[in-house]
């Protein structure tokens, strides 16, 4: 009982600190919707870095990786490493171009170059994918709280408490709140998972003993287990996502200048590379120590064997990582609705105050909707990979718009988005079409051919992406 009191004290203190941070920075998001959804475009390199890490290293990258490592071995850690690789590619390529276009959302780009119908299709796809990812954070949050405090939480009640915190923090402070909270979340998460890994390996008798007693289905090899094709697929999917997901683009757009955006993504990607393998190692050890538990609880269950203070802080930081991911995704989805749907089609003349109110109401409504999704999801990483494949259409559109605008036609984006949806639906409903290793490869082939084919037939080019008014040079250097 004493251990439970220590852990509930830690989790309550953590929740309190997160809300205090949100309340403290709230004044910075007042008076302007841009302040609320893009932090006034004033994020520094450290804030961009922790925002990127906080978005990527959430439930799927810790709890989900350990879940897969429980049956597949150490190679499951490549999932988080793939996020890091995707962030680095983003920083080296399109982060600069996104930032200079001075947009708020990806659908805004679609409307600017491809028309309103493309924008509407883009909004639907972006919101759907982000709600799927959001729902996984509820699942992981419930698993952590139920393992941390089994006398107080079930997975269901853990999801409900997670929902209150996710929605509450986003409602209060927006992107400023999420980015400032991530300074604490990411720091404690990395310290916690590193310390926990070292202690647990020592308690297990060192790496030699772990390798000697692991189940036969496991391996400490970095490739075998999930296999080279799965690793390649993760990398392809997550590079695609980093180039096109609104929640990620929104972080880039919130940077104070181009160089800040680039450095934040590159450093954040490098920091992400090792943490997944630590989570995977703990999943392997959990399989050795607890061969009959639910794989989704592998990481929390193992960490609970530690000193109650260390266990409480580590699991609280992992749970807070869920908060980081969820807040960014929820804010992003709400921005898509308020900026690209409500402002454009429902009330184009609404005041700034009403715009802010609609954005916050969207946070609340979409958060509750996502909680409903979470109650029906199982298999964190497999669910995520299928949903994220829809981002392929956006990646093709964005890359062509930025690098080859004279080869793009006005109708190409809409047909590419529709083709992407059709591919995913067919893949899920018609097993006979699954001739490739993963749906992401089918998406890239079909989307590239659709975009190129429509552009070749229509020959109605868009304007060069550099022609819209960009941010003044003085503002970029401020």
Principal-axes shape call: globular
Question: What string, H for helix and E for strand, traces the elements in order?
Answer: HHHHHHHHHHHHHHHHHHHHH
Q: What low-confidence regions span 5 or more consecutive residues with pLDDT below 50? A: 467-478
What is the first-to-last residue Cα distance? 54 Å
The average pLDDT is 81
**Biggest sheet features:** none
Our estimate of the beta-strand percent is: under 5%
How many strand units? 0
Description:
By secondary structure, this protein is mainly α. It is 77% helix and 0% strand. It has 21 helices and no strands. Helix 3 crosses helix 9, helix 8 (116-148) packs across helix 19 and helix 11 (228-244) packs across helix 18 (391-403). It is globular, with a radius of gyration of 22 Å. It starts with a helix and ends with a helix.
